[in-house]
Amino acid sequence: MAVPPGTVSTAIGRFATGLRYPVLFAITAAVFLLDLVVPDLIPFVDEILLGLFTLLLGGMKKRVDGRPPETPR
């Protein structure tokens, strides 16, 4: 089954517009993918950290109501 052209990029674009920092997420994801290709001295440490940071940024969604986040007391 073939994927129609533009489907993946459209889905990624829709996901990125809902993030607080879409450009920072894209840069971090690109550095993570580049880091997977370039060999390093301590294997998998930087890949794990960049992957976790990318997931953290991916989880930061915009607030729907526009209110600032509440501070815990």
Task: Describe this structure as you would to a colleague.
This protein has 73 residues and is mainly α. 56% of the residues lie in helices and 0% in strands. It is built from three helices and no strands. Helix 2 packs antiparallel against helix 3 (45-58). It starts with 6 loop residues before the first helix and ends in a 15-residue tail after the last helix. The model has no long low-confidence stretch (mean pLDDT 76).
The total count of helices amounts to 3
In helices, the fraction of residues equals 55-70%
Share of β-strand residues: under 5%
Distance between the termini: 53 Å
Question: Tell me about the biggest sheet?
Answer: none
Query: What structural class should be given to the helix and strand makeup?
Result: mainly alpha
Summarize the structure.
The protein has 73 residues and is an all-alpha fold. It is built from 3 helices and no strands.
Secondary-structure map:
Blueprint: H1 7-17, H2 22-37, H3 45-58
Helix pairs in contact: 2-3
Keywords:
73 residues; mainly alpha; flat
